[in-house]
Structures are given as C-alpha cells and as structure tokens.
Specification:
Helix content: 25-40%
Number of domains: 2
Distance between the termini: 52 Å
Shape: globular
CATH superfamily of the largest domain: PurM-like, N-terminal domain
CATH class of the largest domain: Alpha Beta
Number of strands: 10
Order of helices and strands: EHEHHEHEEEHHHEHEHHEHE
CATH topology of the largest domain: 60s Ribosomal Protein L30, Chain: A
Largest sheet: 5 strands, mixed
C-alpha cells in the first residue's frame, strides 16, 4: 500500500543548525504527502500489492505470459521546467514525464506497468508539488500505469528557492517473442510518421533563448493563435494507443520516438548499420512554433532538424506490403499520419 514510507521526503542540511533555519520545512513535506495519497492510490491496478509496510513498493509479475521481459526507462523533462516555473503552471509537467517514458518503452513493444518519480526542490511548496503529482497521476491513469512510489527532496543551496527538478522511471513488460527489434528492418521498408503537438520535451534551451526574451510568455502571437505559455506547455503526446492499435494486427519492424536529436538522430538508433534513412521533408508541414523559432533565431534547417522533432513525434518502420492495411486502420481510428520516406541499403 502506498504511504509516506514509499513517498520519501528527505532533507539535506548541516547538523549544526535546525531544519527550518537551514531552509527545510518538515511540516510542508508532511502536508504534501498527506495531500497526494488519494490521488496516487487512484492509479493502482491489480498488479499493486497493498497492505505491505516497507521501504519499497510491490508489484506482481503479470500472469498469462509465456516469456515476459521487463523493459525500463528513466527520463526527465529538461528545461521545459523553466517555462512551467516562470508561468506558475505546474500541473502538466508530470504528465509530460509519464508520457515521454511510456513512449520510450512502448516503441520496444512493452506495456507500461508502474512508474516511480523523483522531485527535488530548492524550497518545497506543498501546492506546487501537489500540482506536479496531479500531472503524474493523470499520465499514469491515461496509460493504465500505476504510480507506486517516489522521492521528494528539499535541497536548499542545491537549487534556487523557486526551482525544482523532476525525473521518473517506468517499468513495462513485453513477451520476448514480441519485442520490436531493429534486426527486422529490411530494404524497402516504409516510414509511417505520427504528428507531435509541438516541442514535446526537447529543444527548450534553444527555444527559450530565442523566443522568450523577444515575446515573453503572455503576448498573443498570431501564428500560434495564442501565447508562448500555452504553446510551450502543451503536453508531450503519448503514442501508446496507436502503437498498440498497429502491433495488434501487423508486425512492425521498428519504431523511433522522436526526442532530442530529431528525426534522423533518433531513427538511426532503431535501424541497423548499412541502411539509409530517406526522409522526404516536404510530406508534412511542421507546427507553426518551429517556423517561429527558426525565423526569430535565424537558425539553419540542419540545426532545426537536429534539435527539434519538427512536428513528428513517432515513426513506425513497416513492410511496404502492409502500408495499405495499416493506413486504412489508422484512418478508421481517426489517427493522423504521414508516409514520409523509406529505408534502403
């Protein structure tokens, strides 16, 4: 059962003074932990073992699998946090984190099981931390994933008083025979791409340096039909459902989650050596935010494609013979997609 033993609240300070004098509030930590218990428990599923008091959380190995393999990934959301902090809006960052991690294991064919988070604050504010957990809970519930534990640290001197960092670890499972492995990629395979809704969680250091000084967060920008606060805090999309839709019927040869490094940088990771990735950059129109970044900062096409996802969040590499069937299924499901290129020797 989730409790404060699982959601630890640690403090780092000199033993020569009191906690409060060193900038650490135990009462604020207790307030935060008590406030999130019902939210976190709402993510629990049949795999969570409750009623066990210990320093760790417990999760049962799923039944009915012949040869289960666990898949794990750890990540953060980078300097997108600075936008959230400046905007005073913290309830989407947790969802960004969960969705990013879910995508990283889903491209391997895995189904998410449970999630663990880590939050570190210069000064813990219970309401801010609670908002972050709201996003974590929303992300876990939408991906059928249990939030079974975490760590919250107040670290004055390490972070500025209003700064914080958030990271997370996800564990999923896949039948060994159904692992999506790049060894299946063949010459002639086709790349089906799925749109992002913006920057997701990558490229924010460059985007912030180019945009915020000129436009601020709240000024209305015609091309965005809104302001940078709304645009830059759009939640990183989860592609779990579309991956499951396609892999249920067709054998997908490889999948890339487009994060830092862009389309080519990430797709190279899931294509064997000796193959060439041929992208037709004219098959889709990138979101307006990318044009704004490029024009404001006078950034080259090469640099943009290396840093940002350019409007593509996921790429499936499939056999050419399956493209018509997959396309029909995606269209029926209302999923937007593009055929953006192929793989050759």
């Amino acid at each position: 059962m989730w409790n404060c033993k699982y959601y630890h609240f640690w403090v780092y300070l000199s033993m020569k003074t009191t906690y409060s004098a060193a900038g650490v509030s135990i009462s604020e930590g207790d307030k935060f932990v008590d406030s999130i218990k019902p939210m976190v428990k709402s993510t629990f599923n049949s795999g969570v073992l409750s009623g066990i008091g210990n320093f760790g959380a417990f999760f049962k190995v799923p039944k009915g699998m012949k040869d289960p393999v666990f898949v794990a990934s750890t990540d953060g959301v980078g300097t997108k946090l600075k936008v959230a902090i400046s905007a005073g809006k913290h309830d989407t960052i947790g969802e960004d984190l969960v969705n990013h991690c879910v995508n990283d294991i889903a491209v391997c064919g895995a189904k998410p099981l449970f999630f663990l988070d880590y939050m570190a604050f210069g000064r813990l504010k219970a309401n801010t931390a609670k908002d972050i957990v709201k996003g974590l809970v929303r992300g876990c519930k939408s991906n059928s994933c249990a939030l079974i534990g975490g760590e919250t640290a107040e670290m004055p001197g390490m972070y500025a008083k209003d700064d914080y960092d958030v990271a997370g670890t996800i564990i999923g499972v896949v039948e060994k025979s159904k692992i999506i492995d790049k060894k299946n990629v063949r010459s002639g395979d086709v790349m089906i791409a799925f749109p992002s809704n913006g920057l997701h969680t990558n490229g924010y250091s460059l985007a912030r340096s180019v945009l915020i000084k000129k436009h601020g967060l709240n000024r209305q920008i015609a091309s965005l039909r809104g302001n940078l606060k709304k645009e830059l805090l759009k939640v990183h999309r989860s592609y779990l459902s579309v991956i499951q839709l396609v892999t249920k019927t067709w054998k997908v040869h490889s999948i890339s989650h487009i994060t830092g490094g862009g389309i080519l940088g990430n797709t190279k990771r899931v294509v064997p050596k000796g193959f060439k990735i041929n992208v037709d950059w004219n098959t889709w129109t990138p979101n307006p935010i990318f044009k704004l970044i490029q024009e404001t900062g006078n950034i080259s096409d090469l640099e943009m494609r290396k840093v940002f996802n350019m409007g593509i969040g996921l790429i499936m590499i499939v056999s050419r013979k399956d493209v018509i069937g997959i396309s029909a299924a995606l269209t029926k499901a209302g999923e937007k997609f593009y055929i953006i290129g192929n793989i050759t020797e």
